[in-house]
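Lecture notes, continued. The same structure-token format from the folding unit now serves as the input rather than the output. Read the line below as a description of shape only.
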């Protein structure tokens, strides 16, 4: 069974589900998890649909899913990394479109396919990214953003209340626009790899570099895979390759990258040089 069939199935099942839950936001059950992120009943329902759809086509699969479920086997082939709603805090905000569902297929620890559904990102309409044999956006071939020598706009988000990092001062000095508030990490990574302006109508919301310290695997691995497929750069904090993911890494309760950097290759190299000059990433 090919991945395109799975991604098409998820489009058909998830879009009506999202629309239903967004209509019912005032009565939605939402709790705060131990890490201070939000969990809604929609997260659980969406994850259940994704898992059910995968198992119907790929029996014997293993799962690394954000919403812990003891019924899901970690071991299996292929392995699927799932974030049912990346950006739950945005999802429960009726005025924000910055949320998405994310699925990434791993074979021997390497991303071999990905699915990102942003139900309202295209001026209130959906954007569906399918990576199977190729990467498409709403059925059209995906194109990368323009190349640059230095970044003009970057996503370097950090937790609320955390101190500014030294590299932020230098980015500001060069006139680089910085996004510091976290919404959907996946969508920010996608914006470094794929030009979405045809659908969003907002050229200014693309990023040349994405950086995140202590990034959970379900927030990052699909973006890493898409970056590589689109000819962009995806690295860890020392400039090494974060892929393939080891079995020991995936077996952790919350597999977490120390640092993730993706985007335009020249801009990523520039950012790495800057961050090493100013201070080590993550300080």
């Amino acid at each position: 069974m090919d991945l395109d069939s799975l991604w098409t199935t998820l489009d058909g099942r998830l879009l009506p589900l999202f629309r239903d839950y967004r209509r019912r936001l005032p009565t939605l059950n939402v709790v705060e998890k131990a890490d201070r992120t939000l969990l809604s009943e929609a997260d659980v329902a969406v994850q259940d649909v994704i898992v059910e759809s995968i198992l119907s086509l790929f029996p014997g699969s293993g799962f690394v899913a954000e919403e812990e479920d003891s019924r899901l086997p970690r071991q299996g082939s292929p392995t699927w990394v799932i974030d049912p709603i990346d950006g739950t805090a945005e999802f429960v905000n009726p005025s924000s479109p910055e949320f998405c569902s994310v699925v990434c297929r791993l074979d021997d620890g390497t991303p071999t396919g990905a699915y990102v559904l942003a139900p309202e990102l295209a001026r209130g309409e959906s954007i569906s990214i399918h990576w199977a044999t190729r990467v498409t956006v709403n059925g059209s071939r995906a194109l990368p953003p323009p190349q640059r020598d230095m970044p003009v706009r970057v996503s370097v988000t950090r937790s609320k209340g955390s101190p500014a990092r030294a590299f932020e001062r230098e980015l500001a000095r060069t006139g680089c626009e910085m996004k510091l508030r976290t919404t959907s990490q996946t969508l920010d990574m996608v914006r470094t790899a794929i030009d979405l302006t045809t659908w969003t109508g907002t050229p200014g919301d693309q990023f040349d570099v994405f950086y995140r310290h202590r990034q959970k695997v379900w927030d990052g691995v699909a973006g890493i895979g898409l970056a590589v497929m689109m000819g962009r750069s995806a690295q860890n904090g020392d400039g090494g390759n974060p892929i393939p993911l080891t079995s020991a890494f995936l077996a952790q309760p919350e597999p977490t990258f120390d640092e993730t950097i993706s985007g335009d290759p020249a801009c990523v190299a520039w950012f790495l040089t800057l961050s090493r000059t100013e201070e080590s990433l993550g300080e």
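Point for the exam: The mean pLDDT is 93.
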